[in-house]
Amino acid sequence: MKNALLIAATLFLACFPGITDQDGSSESDKNNSISTAVPISLGETINLRIWPRSDTDYYKLELTQGALLHLESQGAPSNIDLYVEIQDREKTMLAYNTDFAKGKQCDFWYSAKPGTYWIMLKDGYDNDSSATNFTFRVTADTVDTFEYNQDLKWAAPISLDSIYYARLHNNNDVDFYEFILLSNKILRCRVDSISNRLNPALQFFDFEGTPLRAFPLLNINSSRIDTGYSLKAGTYYVSVSHSYSLYRPGNSLLPYLLQIAEYLGDSCEWNNDTAHATPTAMGLAIEGNIWPKDDIDCFRFTCTSDTTITVSIDSISSKIRMVLAIHDHEDTKLKENTGRFGETIKYSASLKAGQYFLKLSSSYDSQPSERLYQLRLE
User: Fold this and answer.
1) How far does CA 161 lie from the centroid of its chain?
2) What's this model's pTM, rounded to 2 decimal places?
């Protein structure tokens, strides 16, 4: 009699496979609440079904570090409006697949900070069910490994000269990074994008989060920023986002490249104002460049007696019309001369004894150049 009952039960389960999962566990929903959620790990493939009617399945995911999560299903039945929701420990909804519909697979991204998360799956419309198994998994983006860095608190630490890859996943995404300067430096700041739908913008902040300098994209036909910025020693933040001043709709999952490096092309570059003017003297040759476009090179010199000086500037880039200005010790402009594109400048001025400043910049119609000029006072 016992054998007959066992055979009958086996035949019943074979005829109604929805009663049991593929792994043999009961579909009577051991994981239909946060308290009974099944632990899962990144990259693990889960076999499940929305069965019976009104079934809700919960899974628990622990993250020891922030990550950009990709939630995706395969093979969800055509009669199921698969709804997937991410919750925190207070059962607050953090994100869900907004485009769920019958037969549509789950496929969306979520930027998660370190912590514990619960993932809920169910039919999102009419509590339908299906005995058909499908798969679901959560993976982490291997390119954008610090996508959780959407505010200063979670800024990703970076090192000078290193290259980092990340993504702007939607039009409102902002990536924050933190770096430390042990001494005054001029930085070369690069954002290269292989997506023509990305208009990058850089924004610098001090250690208190106060906005400093912004570098929006200047050419809508380009997806690249390459600029310089002088900063004193300290801790700084920089953000990468879409440039809304030249907004191009759309987003891209293609990565961008970020590099904040020390610029070594101009040894005198920490001289953008009179307070940081580079000292020079008669007969001394100094090299520098006008880079980036709004760069100003400021030099300090002294006339020991009333005299006439000649300022010579050689090896000027063909992209630049050099603007030369002489200021007195109170930073009042005394004289100014604008040269032609790429032409050597020789400018003479009669000065009384005292301290002066020489400021070099470029005209409005010039382009930045890394070519080194040579400056000499005689």
Assistant:
1) 16
2) 0.64
Matching fold, domains 152-262 and 274-377: yes
Among the ranges given (20-24, 201-205, 212-216, 329-333), the one the predictor scored with the smallest mean pLDDT:
20-24
Q: Which helix H or strand E contains 13, and what residues bound it?
A: helix 2-15
- Could you state, in order of their start, the residue ranges of all structural domains in the chain? 30-140, 152-262, 274-377
Question: Residue 254 CA to chain centroid, in angstroms?
Answer: 12
Q: CATH class for domain 274-377?
A: mainly beta
Overall average pLDDT of the 347-370 stretch: 93
The pLDDT-based confidence of 219 (bands split at 50, 70, 90) is low
- CATH number of this structure's domain 152-262: 2.60.120.380
Q: What CATH number matches the domain at 30-140, 2.40.50.100, 3.40.50.300, 2.60.120.380, 3.90.1150.10?
A: 2.60.120.380
CA 128 to chain centre: 42
Long-range contacts of 148-157 (CB under 8 A, 24+ apart): 148/66, 148/67, 148/68, 148/111, 148/112, 148/113, 148/114, 149/66, 149/175, 149/176, 149/177, 150/111, 150/174, 150/175, 150/176, 151/176, 152/176, 152/205, 152/209, 152/237, 154/66, 154/113, 155/237
Residues 63-86 pLDDT 10s: 998 888 999 999 999 999 999 999
Place of tokens 């979670």: 154
The tokens describing 20, both together, are 């049991």
